[in-house]
Structure prediction request, 247 residues.
Amino acid sequence: MNSTIQHQLNHRTKRFFEKRAVPEETLEMFLDVINRTASSNGLQLASCLRITDPQQKAKISQVCQQAYVTDCPELFIFIVDVYKAKRILQAKGAETIHCHNWDQFFKGAADAYLMAQNLTNAVESCDMGAVYLGSILNDSQAIIDLLELPELTFPLIGVGFGYPMDQPELKPRMPMELRLSENTYQVEEDYLELLKDYDQEMTHYYDTRQKNQRSDTYTNQVVQQLTQTHPRRDKILQIAKKQGFQE
Ligand SMILES: Cc1cc2nc3c(=O)[nH]c(=O)nc-3n(C[C@H](O)[C@H](O)[C@H](O)COP(=O)(O)O)c2cc1C
Prediction:
């Protein structure tokens, strides 16, 4: 097994970091990795913001409702960015209407998520750790205002990273057979039965992990998380429309 795969199979989210700064040359390397990421049609409709201002970090942390965001030595926010493309079209006197399509949004979203994952892989390959922050979507309008994002941009995900303070346990995954179909989607009769062993494994994981121990299972988590919504997260589509994306 090569070292890339070793690192990928050893992935675990790290949320708590030493105060130690990430060296400039390491950061430069990570920026190259972000920029080298594959991009839909080569259009590069995604960008990122490096958040260095402690006050900005504190405000983002409030949106995320996760105090540890403030202490991430590095914090990047990845965004859909069709704004620059529109400016190019305008400068060339071209029609801009198609910039506003959802198609461009999804191209930018794919690019942004891939950039974030590429960064995370790079971070983990350097024996550092990272945490994704989907929680910026708790209030995407607040993030848009805070980062002064222009039209045709949209914040998707944050990545906090640095030198980790701890080594959390590996979080088990459901059997791959339940996530892999061949040629056509495999519908199963009884998911609770198929997930019984995995639920037991997760109970053990929640029970014995170092932090935030509790009695829980995977299927209970599905119930808990998918039987309620976050009032502001319900507005994501509306806010993306306000940013200029439309049918
Ligand atoms: C799209 C996405 C958004 C996430 N958002 C958050 C977040 O806001 N805060 C957080 O602490 N972890 C976040 N995570 C981390 C997940 O909670 C974590 O990946 C999951 O529980 C599995 O644990 P593991 O990564 O340690 O294997 C996010 C992960 C993904 C893929």
In short: The beta strands are 46-50, 74-81, 129-133, 153-162.
